[in-house]
Known about the structure:
- With 259 residues, this protein is an alpha+beta fold.
- 28% of the residues lie in helices and 29% in strands.
- The chain has helices at 30-35, 37-41, 51-61, 66-73, 77-85, 93-102, 107-111, 135-142, 219-228; strands at residues 2-3, 128-133, 145-154, 157-168, 171-176, 189-198, 203-215, 242-258.
- A 6-stranded antiparallel barrel has the order 3-4-5-8-7-6.
- A hairpin with a 2-residue loop joins strand 3 and strand 4 (157-168).
- It is globular.
Amino acid sequence: MSGNTRKGMPGGTPQDEGAPGATSVATPxxxxxxxxxxxxxxxxxxxxxxxxxxxxxxxxxxxxxxEDTAARAGTVVGYLQYLEExxxxxxxxxxxxxxxxxxxxxxxxxxxxxxxLPPGLGQAADHSELIELGPxxxxxxxxxxxxxxIATATxxxxxxxxxxxxxxxxxxxxxxAPGSTIAAAVGSHVAFQVxxxxxxxxxxxxxxxxxxxxAVTDPDARRRLDALAHSRPWAGGAERDLWVRVEQDRISxxxxxxx
Length: 259
């Protein structure tokens, strides 16, 4: 992906009702787990994914503290910290089930087993409704930064490519390489889409921006965008130094609500 970031936009926080309390479920023996670190280190190389990092990423995306998450999962904060910070941690199935439930996700997702699959594999809700979003709510959902897709016409036909983007002064901003397919879109009309799918709750939203793609050439403006960049482009490459701004003519969106 080209652009300047990725962190998916925060999804809805799971409801507190029905979440296990800290005293309702037996907590793991943190001391025993710590003592077993040496024995698990040898098998870390074959562990199925970085579980701790995925737990932390999902928790932060939901805006939950470690204390919130530990209480919902019925465990202790120290053990959750251990899981998130120790790459050799291998929590048991029961712990992962409770954490997945507390974070509104699945055990497979925490293991990384769904990382190469498209979103939306879950079942649709029995009572769902498609709701139109107003311009302000659309902009609020895609604001800050994330991953979106830009659609443009080429000599070979329409293409849709993912980019890491930011929203600056109400406009979509991203970086790409001069001479790339996306760079060729500069000066033309494009469509830009961002969406989010919540597998656990069978909900989601999608926002579509339509407008003109313009190259940012002013040196001061470029320096400002360089300073605001959340990170280097995920796709790497020092040559991705062409800033592109999508000046919106129209923004629209919809969300799936469950009744």
